[in-house]
Design brief:
This is Serine phosphatase RsbU, regulator of sigma subunit. It comes from Treponema bryantii. Helices cover 48% and strands 19% of the residues. The protein starts with a helix and ends with a strand. The protein has 14 helices and 21 strands.
Length: 691
Amino acid sequence: MKSKFSKIRCIAAAFTFVFISAVFLTSCKAKKEDVKIDLTQGWTYSLVENAGSEDFTAFDNAKLGNLETLVPKQYGFIWLKKTFTVPEELKNQNLGVYLGRISIADETFVNGSYIGGEGKCPPDEFSAWNTARFYTISQAILNSGENEILIKIWVDAEGSVVSNPFISTVDTARKAASREAFWNSKINLFFAFLMLVIAAYHLMLFFKNKNEKENRMFAFINILSALYLSVFFYGELPFAFDSKVSFLFFQKVFSNSLPFFICYMVISFIITFVHSTEKKAVTYIRLAFLILPVAIILFAPDYRILRSMRWTFMMLIPPMLYLFFVIIRALVKKEKDAVTLLFGFSPLLVIFLIDIIVHNILKIYSFPYITSIGWQLVIVSLLFILANRFVNSRRQVEELNRTLENKVEERTKELSESNSKLSEANNQLELTNNQLIDAKKKADRDLKLAANVQNSFYNPSLPHFKNWDVVYQFKPAAGVSGDLYDFFHDGKELQGVGLFDVSGHGIASGLVTMLAKNVIDRKFRECANLPFSRVVSEIDRQITEDKGDIENYLTGVLLRIQGNQVELINAGHPKVFIRTAKNGRCYPVEPKEPVEKNGIIGFGGLKQEFKALKFKMQKGDSIILYTDCLNESENKEGEQFTEARIAAAFEDAGIGSAKSKLDYVLNRFYKFTEGTIVKDDLTVIVLQYNP
């Protein structure tokens, strides 16, 4: 960090030295003060061409910087006139007049003789606002007494004479104009040329390594910046720039729109450079801060309206604040070069705000635009960062080249040793793999046999029960299922239904399933005259005894049916729901008052209690039983189907048959889990009372 600060100080010192040297060189004065005729006061104006002396009106010469306030609708010509007398020290020689910068265009006369002009008036209006006015006054047109200087100025939303105009020797006036041109145009031309050189260099680097997108983005930033600076130096170009495009189009694109493109590109560059991420919503907001002001600017019908849109530059403030947020966030994350970025952009923000306040709010047009100088600091900082990264990369490459041969030799030796070990391990793996293949074949045979035996326990079809419409869906996840269901009946008289889920998977759970089915069927019939809770207790005792040390246990629901009266015991199983035909609502079958839950079946070592619930079925009422696969299966977002969704689907199934209700629930389930794999055994039973 210390070295990084020292590098930043070196850059700042170098830039300061260049800045001070330029100021010194451009502000040197002769030891003897030159004689000057002051033109800052004493002006009169007229709005009438070829006006007589009586048509000129005195005005506050502080308004020389805001002449548009004197012109109706801020559109038209204004004539400025001032008289002067040539002092003895300046007689008998050609003189020079320095008028500073004039907006928009001017034609200047002395004693009625044309001495020069800059810019274009309508219909081909083009401003020469940043061109320092220097004209030569021939001694032949000067009077020995009073002389008159007349300036015809075209005003379109802006009109001004800025700086401190004067008449003096040709050399003195030319030097003043040169200083003005240097600070307001030539220095920007130099910076623009430098930016184009930097852009060409970084485009070359990008084409050599297209993975480094920062070089391409930095090149585009320099190209856009150079185009924007043309607003300040186009008067210095050797060709007639104003003959290529209209002044209105030039101002819309180069002066008013390019800052928004530059700001957008700089933020994108910084985000890429510090390896940050940006949410799509933020990107869209940034695009809005680019597109909206540019669209407003491009639709301006004339220059007066365009000038009134200077408020659009305020829309650069939120993106610039976001830029500093990105840099500070990178600084908190201790990203490399974040400190340099912060120091490089901080002066720009201050200078930009100064320009906005001075030119757009206070309207002090004589003050030069200094944002371009602050932007040069940013370009220098970014150039230094990219150069520093490039140098570090080169050092790493050189270091790798120096040590590559040793590392290759070491790696070759290590790889040779590893290959020998891998060969031995491969032989062992082949042996183990063959053993595993044989074991898998045997396991597959055993699993297939167990599945066939288990399937033989279930009747492929059910009889048409008296007073009951019964349907079910049984879908094992693998060959052997841990789900167990049974229907107890005497001919067509339905006496009970059971649905159980054995813990675990594979052959062990399948064997427990077959064991439990036999026990449940036998105990249900043998204990038909016993209380229902006693029946389930006997089933629990017998299964626990018969399975011995096997750890698998059962959860489940058992129903005993006599006519329309149903007894139900839920042993640790998901909720059972009943849908009433009377109102079409779905309710869980559970005690009205909170009680201790029933135990689970086959879990040895614990004293289990099983309490029965009794209720009566009305015509059209239906019951749904299911294993936990239905309520615990997940969709692609990781959400479970849940008992609440089961109840909602069962309620929405309508007043149709038991099969239509089952199909409706399963369709909603499969639609919910679409795109995922159902990993557990699925069993669903629907009973509907239809006397």
